[in-house]
Structures are given as structure tokens and as C-alpha cells.
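Page 37, top half.
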Amino acid sequence: MIVMGRLRNLAAYRGFILGSVQREFQSKYRNSILGAAWTVLNPLAMILVYTVIFSQVMHNRLPGNASAFGYSIYLCAGVLTWNLFAEITSKAQTVFIDNAGLIKKINFPRLCLPIIVVANALLNFGIIFTLFTAFLIISGNFPGPVFAAMLPVLLLQILLAIGLGMVLAVLNVFFRDVGQFFSIALQFWFWFTPVVYPVAALPEHVRGWLAWNPMAPIIMAHQRVLVAHQAPDWASLLPAAALTVILCLLGMQLFRKRAAEMVDEL
């Protein structure tokens, strides 16, 4: 009943959520000559750098993959999806602090704020990933029907990100060092995840540590679909799914118990 009540409250404020997403999107390119064109130009430049520089200039090749664009696709699959995770967690952990003035002045469901964070991140990701998908089709590297397998993996990744982000957001209100620590930890986390290097490049004794990294099987699932054109290893995602459930429940519990106290701390 509590969950249904919260969902109804959020649905009632859908105009507020959509308006906030639109305002943030427009504010990024205000006073810019090219305006919203930068939403296409920036990601397009990144994709071109990855595909042209790494495949044609540096002649990087992915072990076990004969495609000239194999490593470039592997790199884009990892970087683009990691950036989605990093954007959600980084912005979610400061969402209550960043919107302190709004929280104190206006009465609205506070859970709207994490939803706005996710919506903005998905909008940015949707633009760049659409361009990347177009590149896969044009270059003849589109994985086919197995491409749809990315949807449940993306959903798991988003829930993991917002679950972690909610826990950090509540803790960050009371202990501001949490946000600083996570920013540093996120950098180490990136390099401990097979985003820019294949797992085969790691020494045998190091590979076992990846089992403790919930983002490793998620990123590898995306790469498996986009590079090998194979369905993810669903069993490998079960630990990440279990952790996601725990973090989402913990985040909601912390928020429910500390919501009133947070207003005084902001």
C-alpha cells in the first residue's frame, strides 16, 4: 500500500518531473550559437575518435575478433554504458544537497529528484547510443535480434545505479565526506572494470577479483551483445541483481526514515 501510494504521488507530479528534465536539457545549451546541435556533435565526435583513431590510425585489434572495428565497438560498448552508470550515481549522491533550496521552499515528493536524475541521464544516453547504433548498422556490425537482450541488462544497470545513488544521497546529507570519497572510488572502480581492456588481458590471479565487482558482468554483458553478437551470460548477472535489490530496499528504507531529518541538515 505504501509503495502504491508513493507511485500515485509521483504520477501526480509527472509534469514537474518532465518540466525539470526539459529545463536542465535546455540550460546546458543556453547562450550557445549551435544550441541543441551540440547534443549530437559531442557524442558524434567521441564515437568518431574511438572508431577512426583506434581502428584506422592505431590499428588496435580485439583478440579473437577479426573485425577492423572490433576494439572500437568493444570500447564504445563499455564506455557509453559505464558513463550512464557514473552519471546516475554521481548526480544522485548530491541530488538532495543540490536541490536544498527547492526542498525547503516547495512541498513535493522528494523521490521526484532521483527520477529526474535518471531521466536526464537516460536522455543523454539515448542520444549518443542512437548515434552509436546507427554506426553499427552502417558499418555492418549490428548484432541483430540479440540486440534486444541489452534492455534487461540496461534496466539492471539503472536500478543498481539509482539504488546505490539513493543510499549515498541520504548518507551524503549527514556526512559530506561520503560524496568526496565516492568521487575518488568511482575512478578506481572504472579501471577495475573491463571497460577499455578485455578480461583476457588480466593476469589469472587478478581475474578472480572481478567477481566482487557488480559492474563487471554488466559491462561484459553489453560487450558480449555488441561485439560477439551473443546473448549475455544471465547467470553471471545474478549476484549484481541480488545486490541491486538490497541497495534499492536499503535506499528506500534510509530515505523513509531520514526524510524529515534531511530537511534540517540541508
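Page 37, bottom half:
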Amino acid sequence: MIRTYGPVVLLIIVLALLWEYGVQWFDVPHYIIPTLSSVATALWENRGSLTHHFGVTLGEALIGLALSVVTGCALAIWMHMSKLAQRLVYPLLVASQTIPVIALSPILVMWFGYEMGSKIAIAVLFCFFPIAVGANDGFKAVNRDILELMQTMGGSKIAIFFKLYVPSALPSFFSGLKVAATFSVAGATIGEWLGAESGLGVFSKRASGMMRADSVFAAVILLSVMGILLFLFVKWLESVLVKPNKI
């Protein structure tokens, strides 16, 4: 336990000390970089409000991530089943990433309004690509020898898909999902910045307008914690569903 987590804990302590005392030593104005203790105080004093905003942003991120999994996997399966879809859709999928999501965000706000829908849509835009590409690449990584063996033994397309293609695609899928899990928080937050009534993005925007840097940093820390928790959850899910190859 100490060998595994000791260096990480030590690094966090060192960084915390540098933050707390470095700001004081270099006399950095509190409205630029507050001390860690003042950020901790802001977290405690605003705990009720921050808990509410945290839940709103987490809900938006989770729904956006779930919709991205459904749509991304559906598109990957379609491209796997149809060579025409692979040739036509995949280039469009890649080209879609050349458009900055932040540029599309105001359009989504106009379409879906300032309710949760626009935040979820922006989160989907952030998460969709790595999931679709990861699943699609995973289908291509199937062991051709096993595929030919299953075909020779008379395996149906459905059986081959679920018993061979799906397990082969899981590692690549989860690699994309881990990236998307952290992106979902960014997508939800950006949507809140553009217009919302609640969420950590709204909280940090209001605090920034009042020059409350300690509250802004408190919201940023919670957003970071949220992204880490989502990443760890996906990693745990991967360890449960993806069995290591012992051959």
C-alpha cells in the first residue's frame, strides 16, 4: 500500500506546501492565486452551494457520457457491419473533430435553450469521438485465426460478433471511454459557462465576476475531483469486464 500510493501522497503534500507557502513568500495577490488554506475555507463555507452545483454538473456529465456510449457504439457497429458506412462515415467522423466544439456551443444553446439539454449536447460532442473511434478500432483488432476457426465451425454472425468481436473491442473501447469520462466534465462545464442557472461552471463564473479567486479555485478543484472519480470508475469497470489474456 505504501509503495503504491506513498509517492503520490508525498507529491500531493509537497505541491500543497509549495502552493500554500509559495504564494505567501512571493507575495502573490489573493485575487490572482489564493493560498490553499483560503481555498479550503471557501470549500467549507460554500459547502452547501457547492454540493448542489456539483450534483448538477455531475448529472450533466453522466447523461452526456451515457448518450455518447450509446451513439458511439451504435455508429461503430454500423461501420463494422457495413463497408460502405466505413468508407463514408469514418472520414466525416474525423472531419467533425476539426470544428472547435466551443464554436458550436452557442448554436446548441440556441437549439436547446439554457436548460440541461444544451449542456448534455455539448458533453456528447466532447465524448462521442473517442468512444466511436475506440470501439471501431477494437473491432478491427480481432484475431483473424480465431475468426476463421469460428467461421469454419459454423458460427453464426451474431454469435461471432458477441463472442469474438465484442470481447476483442473492449480494451480499445475502454481506452476511449476513459478519455471521454474526463472530457464529459469539460463539456458540461463549458455549456454552463455559456448559459445556465446552476452547476460548477456557473458557480465559478459568478465567483470570477466578484473577484473571488478562492471560490473559483474551489470549483476548479471539485471539477478535477469529478473527472478523476469518473476516470477511476471507468477503470474499475474495465477491470471487471475485461479479462486479461493468459495465453
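Margin note: Residues 1-33 form one domain.
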